[in-house]
Every structure is written in C-alpha cells, then in structure tokens.
C-alpha cells in the first residue's frame, strides 16, 4: 500500500485526555496518542481567524496530520418544517 493509500485514524475534536483546549493542542496531543488525523467539529458555527487557520495548518504539517471538517448541514431533507424542507430542496 502506498503512502497515499494509507488509512489514517483520529478523533472528532480534542481527545478527552487533552490538557489544553483548541485545535492546535488537539493535533499535538492526538499525535502523542498515535493518531494521524483529526476531524475538526465546527457544527454550530465557524469561529476561526486567518491567523488561527495558519497555526492549525502549521501544526498539521509538523505532525504529518490530515484534517477534515465536520460543519453544519446545509441541506436537511428530514426536516419537520415545510420551510426548511423547501429551502433545503432549493440548494
């Protein structure tokens, strides 16, 4: 299996054993635990500056980490409200 085909494992958000909060700390702590990936949970909203994005990228590069983002759902085809179903269908 080539390096590009390697399966990477990680957590969604910071591991529970992390002593510090934040994505950068989560990357470094996850690496200490033997993980190679982190899914960033931006489910409620995205509150991150360009500077913080650069720090996250640097930490991921340093740790040879891949990242994914779990963001809010743009489409909800299981909504109980007609308005949300209509808006989701238009997207």
Mean pLDDT: 87
Q: Report how far apart the termini are.
A: 39 Å
Biggest sheet, spatial arrangement of strands? 1-2-3
| Number of helical segments with 4 or more residues | 3
Give the class from helix and strand content and strand pairing.
Answer: alpha/beta
What can be said about the biggest beta sheet?
Answer: 3 strands, parallel
Series of H and E elements:
EHEHEH
The portion of residues assigned to helices is: 25-40%
Percent of residues in beta strands:
15-25%
When the domains are counted, the total is 1
Q: Over all CA atoms, what is the radius of gyration?
A: 17 Å
Overall spatial form: elongated
Descriptive keywords:
three-stranded parallel sheet; 3 helices; single chain; 91 residues; elongated; alpha/beta; 3 strands
């Amino acid at each position: 299996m080539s390096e590009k085909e390697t399966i990477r494992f990680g957590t969604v958000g910071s591991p529970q054993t992390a002593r510090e909060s934040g994505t950068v700390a989560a990357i470094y702590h996850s690496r200490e635990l033997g993980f190679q990936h982190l899914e960033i949970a931006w489910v409620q909203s995205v509150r991150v500056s360009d500077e913080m994005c650069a720090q996250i990228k640097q930490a991921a590069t340093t740790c040879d980490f891949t990242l994914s983002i779990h963001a809010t759902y743009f489409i909800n085809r299981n909504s109980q409200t007609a308005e949300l179903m209509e808006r989701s269908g238009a997207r």
